[in-house]
Design a protein that fits this description.
single chain; alpha/beta; eight-stranded mixed sheet; eight-stranded parallel β-barrel; elongated; binds phosphoenolpyruvate; binds magnesium ion
Length: 885
């Protein structure tokens, strides 16, 4: 902590800069930086995030020196502007905004026009020569201040506004006369007095301290806390407060306010992209109350709007804006999200920050910026969040599908989603437990975050491309269609009606296409995504930077092909039991399990052999010489047996055995704790004939591929759930024996490795002994997590939430590796294994193999590869590159 709590900026100078985000928050640091760059920024000052910390550490009190620092900063601004805070004739007004280290869009509150009261409003009216503007600003200030600082429901004011408009027969706020606005201000103040028994504060300094406290206080409001939880933002970071002299976009037709991105945030195209409103204040654009107009002629065309663009209405200001955004991009070397205000034909910059973008846009922008020479390839890779690639891998609508489009609106966030309609976030949370839902709202607000999070997609009747729904959905990677004015929602009766009279009730299924804005009745089939050339280029760069190899967990021909298409460099886990569940073979599997003696089992296994052989042949062929790890049977046999009475009868009939016999075998095989029971290599020890059949199928298939295609198979045979050296020693002998038999028969010499999964703590601790037998290790982090924590992977989901809420687990340890505990076992196993066998091959095939944070650890731990589900292969490729950059 320093003693300096306030950092001023203005007039081309600033005490801070963009490197001071931790102290000044993102907004404050960038305002200072823009000032230093000589851009037009209204003068102001930032109260640091350390004050937020102080405030919460000291019973919501401020440091004693803060007041004087603020007074000094205000005096400096007064000098620059030539107006005085609280002065009746020539009042200086402020905006007060929050700004934390990480951007939290719409999460915290803003107060504009601070410093207005019954007297200064007259001063503002005289000074501006625009009495209507002065009273419009005053009524806005009362609304915002009451909402944010006094905790007064803004609904109260909306009722007054609506009544006044009705009384006067006007529709929009801009049509209200100055007398009407003066009347509204009086009614507002009366309402506040009535409800709070206090007058609306008239003292400018009292107003300022009220607003500062409210911003700090809002750091701990529920929606801010929820946002932080969802986005992993530590609450200790705190927020800064930015106090800036007001500039007015609502001074008439030569004034405006807007937001813009320096590149298109949806598709990444290199074009200024944004919206503005003439004669309005910033909040009007974001709140979606008025329909915003496009900044560029091109944007206007694209959105099919007939409202005049800024490029046409204010060509000079537009040119200046273009110049500034280009400067900002060159300076920050990233796509910028800017806010600006035009006051009487003068442009002012209110904010710049790195813009949020879809994954598709992120990839295009990163690749383009490399081509433009702005950044290098490493930086391009650093900029892409591996998890966000999920968005690109999302399905799109099958174009061949017959669809009933009931309307089209703004394509606010790409991707397609189907689900049943719900009309509130609460309903979304409830219904999404069992069904996929689409949240339909008039517009969304920060209170809807949780509801949006659990929904497949979002449809709003109002709001533009920069509305809350659009911005938040893009961040979440959820499809969103916004501004759907063709629907009329009845939130109470829970249905909406389209212009054409179609009624969609709660529970009806709709599909939304966030890429083109279509809203469709019913469910529409979807297609695998088609990856862009930019994506392939970026992935190619990533491949050049990574050390870890990426394999996939797959056991069907289709999955293997998908994995290869996504760039997998082998199969890291083929779970042979998944092949047993196929309809055509489950009966033979059951026959094998139900058999009471060796002979019976062998008879059934003989039927399974050719089937398994065919499967392996397919996989080896597709993988064309890449390594393939096949794991021998793992789960307890009981899992394959029928359990419901009807199924038991069917199986008995199919096999021609007594029903009681099936029931008896079921009872004999049942285990209280199957996860720790007769599974994994224990099956191979008890019933060697099962592993023998599997080994034979593998070697026969590999020989066949070699014969037919002259193609080598990089075979790795993996033994699951090993705890001791002896287990693998026995089973290895069995496998080698089978190989020699197949070799003698086929006259083909095969290369292969025999290794083990490390998924029990004992195996990790005894890795040196085990490595004397095993030629490779593959960490089964699902079971290793389960057995290290003693936490059932099947049953813990029900209470893991409590553990996360209580702060015991930051993350679900089955999703993100517990580096401290489970990670330590991995490190021990790596060190001990390598000590015995220097060239021991090391991989991981648990679910963590597709989790970026876990991948960073696996890289550090020195593994050779990670293996994950085919759809996560690109994510793993990128994460592995980032780990090595
Ligand atoms: C594991 O335990 O991590 C693993 C990959 O095996 P399975 O999930 O099949 O138990
Ligand atoms: Mg396992």
């Amino acid at each position: 902590m320093t003693d300096k709590y306030v950092y001023s900026f203005g007039d081309g100078k600033a005490e801070g800069d963009s490197s001071m985000k931790n102290l000044l928050g993102g907004k404050g640091a960038n305002l200072a930086e823009m000032c230093k760059m000589g851009l037009p920024v209204p003068p102001g000052f930032t109260i640091t995030t350390e004050v937020c910390d102080f405030y919460y550490q000291n019973n919501q009190q401020f440091p004693s020196s803060l007041n004087l620092e603020i007074e000094n900063s205000i005096a400096a601004i007064e000098k620059i502007i030539g107006a005085k805070f609280g002065d009746i004739d020539n009042p200086l007004l402020f905006s007060v905004r929050s700004g934390s280290r990480a951007s939290m869009p719409g999460m915290m509150d803003t107060v504009l026009n601070l410093g207005l009261n019954d007297k200064t409003v007259i001063g503002l009216a005289n000074k501006s020569g625009n009495r209507r503007f002065a009273f419009d600003s005053y009524r806005r200030f009362i609304q915002m201040y009451s909402d944010v600082v006094l905790g007064f429901d803004h609904y109260n004011f909306e009722v007054i506004m609506d009544e006044k408009k009705q009384e006067l027969g006007v529709v929009t706020d801009t049509e209200l006369s100055v007398e009407a606005l003066e009347g509204i201000v009086e009614l507002f103040k009366q309402k506040i007095k009535e409800e709070t028994k206090k007058d609306f504060p008239q003292d400018a300094k009292e107003q300022l301290w009220g607003a500062i406290s409210a911003v700090f206080f809002s750091w701990m409001n529920e929606r801010a806390i929820t946002y932080r939880e969802l986005n992993n933002i530590p609450s200790a970071w705190g927020t800064a407060v930015n106090i800036q002299s007001m500039v007015f976009g609502n001074m008439g037709e030569t004034s405006a306010t807007g937001v813009a991105f320096s590149r298109n945030p949806s598709n990444g195209n290199k074009e200024l992209y944004g919206e503005y409103l003439i004669n309005a204040q910033g909040e009007d654009v974001v709140a979606g109350i008025r329909t915003p107009q496009s900044i560029t002629i091109n944007g206007k065309k694209q959105s099919g709007s007939d409202l005049i663009s800024m490029e046409e209405s204010m060509p000079k200001i537009f040119a200046e804006l273009v110049n500034i955004y280009q400067k900002l991009e060159l300076h920050y070397k990233d796509m910028q999200d800017i806010e600006f205000t035009v006051q009487n034909n003068k442009l002012w910059m209110l904010q710049t920050r790195n813009g949020k973008r879809t994954a598709h846009a992120a990839v295009k922008i990163a690749v383009d910026m490399v081509k433009e020479g702005l950044i290098d390839k490493k930086e391009a890779i650093r900029r892409i969040d591996p998890e966000s690639l999920d968005q690109l891998l999302h399905p799109t609508l099958d174009p061949k599908a017959k669809v009933k489009i009931i309307g089209n609106a703004l394509p606010a966030s790409p991707g397609a989603a189907c689900g049943m309609v719900v009309f509130s976030s609460q309903d979304a949370e409830k219904k999404s437990e069992s069904k996929k839902v689409i949240l339909v709202r008039l517009e969304t607000s920060p209170e809807d975050i949780k509801g949006m999070h659990v929904s497949e997609g979002i449809l709003t009747a109002r709001g533009g491309m920069t509305s809350h729904a659009a911005v938040v959905a893009r961040g979440m990677g959820k499809p969103c269609v916004s501004g759907a004015s063709f629907i009329q929602i009845d939130h109470n009766a829970k249905f909406f009606t389209t212009q054409d009279g179609i009624i969609v009730k709660e529970g009806d299924v709709i599909t939304i296409n966030g890429s083109n804005g279509d809203v469709i009745l019913g469910e529409v089939p979807t297609l695998k995504p088609n990856l862009s050339d930019d994506f392939k280029l970026l992935m190619g760069w990533a491949d050049g930077f990574r050390k870890l190899k990426i394999r996939a967990n797959a056991e069907t021909a289709l999955d293997c092909q998908t994995a290869r298409d996504f760039g997998a460099e082998g199969i890291g886990l083929c779970r042979t039991e998944h092949m047993f569940f196929n309809e055509d073979r489950i009966i033979s599997v059951r026959e094998m399990i139900l058999a009471e003696d060796l002979e019976g089992r062998k008879k059934a296994l003989a039927k399974l052999l050719p089937m398994q052989e065919r499967d392996f042949f397919q996989i080896f062929k597709i993988m064309a010489g890449l390594p393939v790890t096949i794991r021998l049977l793992d789960p307890p046999l009981h899992e394959f047996l029928p359990h419901k009475d009807q199924e038991i009868i069917e199986v008995a009939n199919q096999l021609g055995v007594e029903i009681d016999y099936v029931k008896r075998r079921n009872a004999q095989l049942k285990e209280e704790n199957p996860m720790l029971g007769h599974r994994g290599c224990r099956l191979g020890i008890s019933y060697p004939e099962i592993y023998e059949m599997q080994a034979r199928a593998i070697f026969e298939a590999a020989s066949e591929v070699k014969k037919q295609y002259n193609q080598d198979v990089l075979l790795e045979i993996m033994i699951p759930l090993v705890a001791t050296k002896k287990e693998i020693e026995i089973l290895k002998k069995l496998i080698i024996k089978v190989e020699l038999e197949v070799e003698a028969k086929q006259k083909i010499k095969l290369n292969y490795l025999i290794g083990t999964m490390i998924e029990l703590p004992r195996a990790a601790l005894m890795a040196d002994e085990i490595a004397s037998e095993a030629e490779f290790f593959s960490f089964g982090t699902n079971d290793l997590t389960q057995t290290t924590f003693g936490l059932s992977r099947d049953d813990s989901a029900g209470f893991l939430g409590h553990y996360q809420n209580a702060g015991i687990f930051k993350k679900d340890p089955f999703a993100e590796l517990d580096v401290d505990g489970v990670g330590q076992l991995i490190e021990i196993a790596v060190a001990k294994g390598k000590a015995t066998r220097k060239n021991l091959k090391l991989g991981i095939c648990g679910e963590h193999g597709g989790n970026p944070n876990s991948i960073y650890f696996f890289h550090k731990a020195g593994l050779d590869y990670v293996s994950c589900s085919p759809y996560r292969v690109p994510i793993a490729r990128l994460a592995a590159a980032k780990a090595n950059i």
